[in-house]
Amino acid sequence: MKTNLKNKIALIVAVMLLCLYGIFGIPSGISGHALLEAIGNQIHLGLDLRGGAHLILQVQVQEAVSTYTDNTVQQLQQDLKKANIGYSQVIKPDPLVVDPVNHKETGRPDLIRVEGISPAQSDAVGTLLGGPKYANEYEASSGADNSWTLTMKTPYENDLKARTVDQAIETVRDRVDALGVSEPLIEEYNLGASQILVELPGVSDLNEIERVIRETARLEIHPVDAGPFQDQQSALASVNGVLPPDEELLQTSGDLAGSNGVSYYLLQRVPVVQGSDFRSAVPGLNSNTGQQTVEFTLTNDAGDKFWDYTSANVGKNMAVVMGGSVREVAVIKSGIRDRGQIEGTFTQKEVTELSKLLSSGALPASLNYIAANTVGATLGADSIKDGVRAAVVGVVLVMIFMLIYYKGSGINADLALILNLIILLGIMGLSTILSRASGGGGLTLTLTLPGIAGVILTIGMGVDSNVLIFERIREEIRAGKAASAAVDQGFARAWVTIVDTHVTTIVSAVILFMFGTGPVKGFATTLFVGLLANLFTAVFVSRVIFDAHLDNLKPGEMVSI
Amino acid sequence: MEFFRGVNVNWLGWKWYFLAFSMIFSVAGITKMTLNWFHSDPNHRTPVPLSVDFRGGTEIEVRFAQPPDLDAIRKAIYAVGIRDARIQNYYNLQHPENHEVLIGLPEETNEAALDVGRTQVESALQTHYNQFNPATVVKVEVVGPTVGEQLKKKAVEATLFSLLGMLVYLWFRFQLIYGVAAVVACFHDTLITVGAFALWNREISLTVIAAILTLVGYSMNDTIVVFDRIRENLRLSRREPLADLVNRSINQTLSRTVLTSGLTFLTVLSLFVFGGQVLHDFSFALVVGILIGTYSSIAVAAPMLVAWQEWRAGQGKAASLPAARKAR
Asked: I want to staple B162 with a disulfide (CB 3.0 to 4.6 A). Which of A381, A508, B80, B94 is the partner?
């Protein structure tokens, strides 16, 4: 045997061993059960096969923009005062409104307007707004009636939104980790803007996940302007029917201490304390009233701010707001710095969850889930069984046919086919090993149910290459060529066609991978890897087997095809 | 063993029959799709039934220990306030012992209440089916309008892009007319397959789109094999009339075409029969698609090349063969 051929065979054996390692790892034993377990450990299964929950969440990024401009409004008021510039008000002319039904966000939270500036000071305002403090983030323009308008710059706004989504992903990850889910996947969902994909293997109770992830702990403390009111109309009547842009009207959740039924409050839109100001929160119980409480601590900055506010507003009311409703209204008795206690209409479960959520970091904006699905583990197991059975039946039928139709060469094709499957599964297993080794980084290839279908299709493709080559060899033999020349020509001629057919299919696999989600991505994965493996087995390996066989032929003897 | 040795069929002589055959199936599909369009909900017009991932809505798959009474389920669900649920037996050929029922709820336009239907159905099942006939929810799918819409958009984009990608590749490898002929053949296959979904009232899901893209790839493969042979023969014998040459090329590759398609058909058929309920629509698309794809590479793509050349000759332009670029 030629050295060249020996080297090639060594390469094939090496690839095969590597891929076998990819499939089985180092199994604990060689019994069927141990091997199966090893495969399960190596091949990363999609949610449709192992069971689990899959959610798509929409991050209400406009809220983050709104929060940001709220802070700017406060900042601006202070700066104007410091510079001794007179103005009537700093407002957001078109504040964000979130439809409670479909969560559609309307309004322009990126706009801020300073109104009622004396004409003489208009230039001074322009200088302030064009200065380093605002110019990075806002575009300033002067308008009619001595006003100036700040508009958030688009790149800055997009950046802010992107950061909000990243932060939301981090927060959701922390919360999911607290649930104790193994191998969760939380990433930006590429099909829509500002959406997050959450995949939780082995979880089937949607209710619990949704509560933990979605019920945003946007716990805030707002100054109360007026209230309580019996209904919305009377609340609006107190402000002459039009809600001022810096106020909001919220309802209480059920009975608050000392009142009956739902009531309404007019609150300052800008909170004194917001979610990100909380450092920690611990559940507690007021032994006198028996009510659930949350004891919180604030960050240093927020503590200072809260101290300033509470000291200056002793005797006034403030409201604790969570999930869009007022949970507690309390009178400020004295200045509070960074420690406090919230007592309100919370259930014990809410208090425990709230403290867990506050400690894991607040969400920068609300999350709404826009799609969810779960697959039970039993259904997944059934799917694996069905899929594998279909694959085995398909492979066996094809292999038998190849043996009958191509005789000796059929063995060659069958070997190539088996090796193709080993490489395909091996690469999938190796990707898991690599990604584990790099600490969760790297791309883990996932096997899904459509992925199993992809494996079956790969069998068809693999056979196609062999059929193309064998038919060519037969033609060459018919044309009177000797064995080795026929094999040579057969491979050379079929090669062009094989490249073309593979490239076109790879094109569609890549596009599917880019556009697809979950299961379909899995299909594209196996199809893609299978096609690459097939180029190696059907062309290279099958050629080596032919060459080895040709070496052993007596002069004038023909290959069995 | 050999099936096709020295076949000599005049394929192009059949072109009018092929055209008639293709037309009948295309028109049947298009007619059914048009009818579906006008009979579908005016707010969500669709030519083919769409699965929940595109349509939006809620689907809950429930397994019962005993064969359940659909009317009883309907009543239980009606009692919790859901009026428009679709309840049907979900026959699972492989596992008839599972007694599965599919409960479908229409799309919830209120995204805040997306999940309310599911919760209600689950609690209704829990109260009515806890002891005598325990019900297990094995699969839930809740899709809001936003996700359904964006998925639909992406599916259309994926299909168009993959056709475009192949066209560009073929243009680069052969010549534009080859690419166009191949893409027309693929479009023909897609149309007939989607038409088959409309005719059989099967739902198109994201997985079915994947199957359609695969069969596009498959049909493209078959076409390329024939084209490759035409190109090769063109270089060898420049004097032969194109129609004869194309016929010869088809005949030479016929053995491969039939074998490969037959074998792939075998694997897909095993998927259709044994692959379980979840993959049923997926394998249906492939079963139809592979048959049509094989047919179209012989009966649509190759005759188009000849027709184009004849048309060019009729125009008095270069009556020569479409000058194929050299392979490699």
From this structure: A508
